[in-house]
Amino acid sequence: MPSLNHRDLWAGVVLVAFGGVALALGADLTVGSAADMGEGYVPRMMAIALVVLGALVTVGALRPGAASAESRFDAVRARSIVFVTLAVLAFAATLQTLGVMVAIALSCLSASFAGHPLAPRPLAILIALLSAGVILIFVWGLGLPLTIFPTVF
User: Is the pTM of this model over 0.70?
Assistant: First the structure.
């Protein structure tokens, strides 16, 4: 009898169930086509994706040796979760007041400590490239009213 990963099995079942409920609730919405989407197109595609993902997770739970897969999560430490969460919070807290440059710098610096911290030079390059990309796309390309540099008083 193959080993069974109960956690993955139930996760897959729940995903399939949520997808099925979403399909049932959106059954009377107009779907349309990819060229002319109705209000039910995206919800239907997301529900189908949920069902497929749930089926894949369920099948993965039934494969031989699946019960030992839980050990791969042992490497996740609280440190990673804390620093990635701090990175998101730092970005959200500083974007409007200190601007895009500082928000990205603080976010990258915090996220860097989630794993092996980056050396100063690669970290500076990462911050510069992310800042340039965000400014090009969101500020200049889309015209969002974001502050780029901190305003002094």
Answer: no
